[in-house]
Amino acid sequence: MKSRNGLLDRREAAFLWALAAAGAAAFAWGLYAAPARTWGAVLIAAGMLTGLAAGALALTAILHVVGAGWHGVIRRVPEAMAGTLPLAAGAVALVLCGAHHIYHWPHAEALLHDPVLRAKSAWLNLPGMAVRSAVYLALWYAGYAWLRGLSRAQDEGAAGDPAAAAGTARAVSAGLLVVFALTFSLSSIDWLMSVEPHWFSTIFPWYQFGGAFSSALAAAAALCIVLRRRGVLSELGPAHLHDLGRLMFAFASFWAYLWFSQYLLIWYSNIPEETVFFAARSTGGWLGMMVASLALNFAGPFVVLLRADSKRREGPLLLAAGMMLAGRAVDLCVTVMPAVAPGPMRPGGVEPFILVGAGALFILAFDRVFRSAPAVPRRDPYLVESLHHV
């Protein structure tokens, strides 16, 4: 039987475990058949998982800082998404295990013949990357655990005055956002930008944040809708969906603005060490993937969510959320694959199976964390406002 507080019943959980097993089998087969593409797919999956968890953590902290009254009903959804950070940490650890297949800079012969890589070796080295990755993830999880602890103490009446507890959460969130801005920027450089170690872009960390945050918003909206359909979040109303839709619309536009800014500056300056990134992604079928990324991340959601009434209905929101999540995966593929497995784009392979398996694990992890607390925070001082949000 499915718990009142859960997302999945036993049959659905078993199906997701089967998908995860299929992803693991595809990974094992890919190590033999196409190791470069397989490890690239692992990095894409890790980027998706860390983006969903870290983006949800940032969303939770932002909602606390701004004192958003409407979010009380939905707060446990991004909280539980942030609670999947251990799964993201496991994916990052797997990336580090395959670093010699993913990145150019760990190879001794590359350092020997490449003065640029030698100059960057003080930062781009495996021990340093492993330590920094552990620090990033530990700080994010510590921030999540602190906020989650305050939220649960508020539920149980152990936090004293609920308003004072909300003030503490706001202060913790403000500090967390400062730490998050720095660590997410550095993690984007370490995990993603370093696949092209000769290339650089000062906009790239912001661009990756835009993609991660948009995907987290999309996943949060989709999960809220599914939970409402199953009677778990019956308090969720059209006004809550409208606010989620507005955020999705805004950050899809924000992502597109950053994409265009990065592309325009590099195209206009025409400096070879900058244009190499887009030059490699404009041939061999990759240009079509870039266009698909723009369509899924921006154009499609923009059209679907442009009307005010579409943001208040489940169907358009689910459609936009699906496009944004697929767009994030395509965007990560365009970022990673031309560097990890150079050459023309080849459809098929193990990548979809690994991504679907990672997605199944994310939903299973989310369900486990979500079940561990009441679906709606009971003593949130903003709860009454959120319940009557219109």
Quick tags:
390 residues; mainly alpha
Annotate the secondary structure layout.
Blueprint: H1 10-33, H2 35-66, H3 76-82, H4 85-97, H5 99-102, H6 108-113, H7 115-120, H8 126-156, H9 162-191, H10 204-229, H11 238-269, H12 272-280, H13 286-305, H14 314-340, H15 351-371, H16 383-387
Helix pairs in contact: 1-2, 1-15, 2-3, 2-4, 2-9, 2-10, 2-14, 2-15, 3-15, 4-8, 8-9, 9-10, 10-11, 10-14, 11-13, 11-14, 13-14
Protein architecture, described:
Helices cover 75% and strands 0% of the residues. It is globular and about 65 Å long. The chain starts with 9 loop residues before the first helix and ends with a helix. The protein is built from 16 helices and no strands. By secondary structure, the chain is mostly helical. It has one domain (10-387).
Radius of gyration: 21 Å
Distance between the termini: 34 Å
**Structural class category:** mainly alpha
Contiguous uncertain segments of 5+ residues: none
What would you call the shape?
Answer: globular
Average pLDDT reading: 92
Helix content: over 70%
Alpha plus pi helix count = 16
Q: Tally of extended strands?
A: 0
In short:
With 390 residues, the protein is mainly α.
